[in-house]
Amino acid sequence: MKKSEKIVCALFPNALGVGYAVFNSPKELLHHQLVRVRPMCSRKSKAFIEKLINELKPDLVVLEDPNAKKSRKRERVTKLIKDIVSTCKSKDINVHQYSREHIKNVFEQFGKTTKYGIAVIISDWFPKLKPVLPRPWKLGYSEQHHQGMFDAISLGLTHYYLQD
Question: Would the pTM of this model clear 0.85, i.e. be above it?
């Protein structure tokens, strides 16, 4: 990879683990995954994220803003996000945070605002993701495993869209 190329790492910690997406540009998704963290604990999630940041050496980390007006992040995840921001700052890595509303506003222009609808758009843009497209959420069912990965990708794409 050339030095002039910027690596953007979007991180989405949630109840299942950590979804992440690594971009070189809005059209170049280098890597994506949802890593399960069992048992659920911030210490293990933080250790995984620190290892990922040390390996990737991103120029920018993108996170959801847990302090946004309509954020429903639980206290554990909110603290974990704050810890990630501190880790990045200690390594001189820029951090941008976006609310769920930012993501919805970006993808509304493409006709979708639900997590499932946004995931469908993302899988259209990156066809290799179609096999892991989560099913639509239904009342009484928990979120599917790969949704956190799609959430991370949507954060990264929101960053590119709002920065241009």
Answer: yes
